[in-house]
Amino acid sequence: VFEAHNANALQLGGWSLLVALLTLWIVAKGVQAGIERAVRWMMPGLAVMLLILVGYAFTSGGFDQGFAFLFSFDTSKLTGEALLAALGHAFFTLSLASGAILTYGSYIPDGQSIARTTFMVAIADTAVALLAGLAIFPIIFANGMDPTAGPGLIFMSLPLAFQQMPFGTLFGVLFFAMVSIAALTSAISMIEATVAYLNEKHGISRLKAAMGAGAVLLVISLLAMLSFNLMAGWTPLGKNFFDWLDYLTSRWMMPLGGIFIVIFAGYALRSEIMREELDLPPLGYALWLFMVRYVCPVLITMVFLHALGWLGFDPLVRWYWIVGAVVVLTLLGEGLRPRVMPALAGR
C-alpha cells in the first residue's frame, strides 16, 4: 500500500495541497488567532494519544524488549561517531538554525526567562521522543520485526503489526493521527519564520506573506513528491530532488546557520543585551558565553564536516583534538574580539 501510494502522483499531490492549505490557513490567521489556538489543542492531543499508545504497547507482549532496546546501557556505543550523530540529530529534532526557534522566541512575553524556556523545550522534546520509542518499539518486537528498518518502519511495518493485534485498526488510526499532528505543527513552525520576516521587516500582510511562502512551499513539496514517481528517473549526481533537498538542508544549511548564529550571539550582540534577555546568574552567563563563543563553533563545525563525510571521528579525532581546537579558538577569539565585535555590530 505504501509503495502504491508513493507511485500515485495525483494522490500524493492532492495530500500535499491539502497540508499546504491547512498550514497556510493557520499561519495567515496570526500568532494568537491561528498558531496559538491550533497548537493549544494539537499538542495536548498529541500527548494524550502518545500516552494511550504507550499503554497499548505495554500490553503488546514486547514491552520488555522495547524498553531494553531503548535504555540498555552499552559503553561500547559511546563513540565519537555516536556523539556527532547525536549532535546532528539535535539540529533536526529541535529545528535549530532553521529560523523557527528565533521566530517563536521573539513572541516570548517580557519577564519570561529565555534560558528556562529553552531548557523546558529541550526536556519536553526528549520526553516526547522517549515516549514515542516506548509506543513503537514494543509493538515492533512483539511482532518480530526489524527495529532498524528506517522510514519503512512507520509506514510499512507498523500497519502490518496493528493488523495482527486486538483493536489494531483503532490504535493504528490513533497512531497515524498523532504522526499527522506532529507533521502539521512542524510545517507551521517552518513557514512561520518566513511569514514573520516578510510581515515584520517588509510590511507585507500575513495573508499575502503566507500565500507567497505557501506557493514556494507547495512547488518544493510537489517536486519532492514527484521524486518518488514521475521524476524518479531524474537523479543528477546520483540523487533525486528529494535526496538533494534533504542533503542541502540537513548537511549544509542547518549546520552553517548554526555557526553563523553562535558567532552573531557570541560576538556581535552587546553583552548587556544578552545579560538582560537571558537573565542568568553571573557564573551561568559566563559559562554560556564561553560555550557560545568557543565550544559550540568547534562542535558545530565537526558536525558539519562529519555530515559531509569529510571528518571521521575514530580514531582520527579524539578528545585532545577537540580541547585543542577550543583552546586555539579561545585565543584567537580573545585576540580578535576588540576588532571583530564592533565590525559585526556595525559600530
Structure characterization notes:
The protein folds into two domains: 1-78 and 99-232, no CATH class; 238-347, no CATH class. Helix content is 78%, strand content 0%. The protein is built from 14 helices and no strands. α2 crosses α3 (31-58). The mean pLDDT is 79.
The tally of beta strands, per DSSP, is 0
User: What is the terminal separation in angstroms?
Assistant: 60 Å
Structural class: mainly alpha
Global mean pLDDT: 79
* Regions with little confidence, pLDDT below 50 for 5+ residues: none
Strand residue content: under 5%
Order of helices and strands: HHHHHHHHHHHHHH
**CA radius of gyration:** 22 Å
Could you give the topology of this structure?
Layout: H1 2-7, H2 9-28, H3 31-58, H4 63-71, H5 80-93, H6 100-105, H7 114-142, H8 152-163, H9 168-202, H10 206-226, H11 241-268, H12 271-278, H13 282-307, H14 319-345
Helix pairs in contact: 2-3, 2-9, 2-10, 3-7, 3-9, 4-7, 5-13, 7-8, 8-9, 9-10, 10-11, 11-13, 13-14
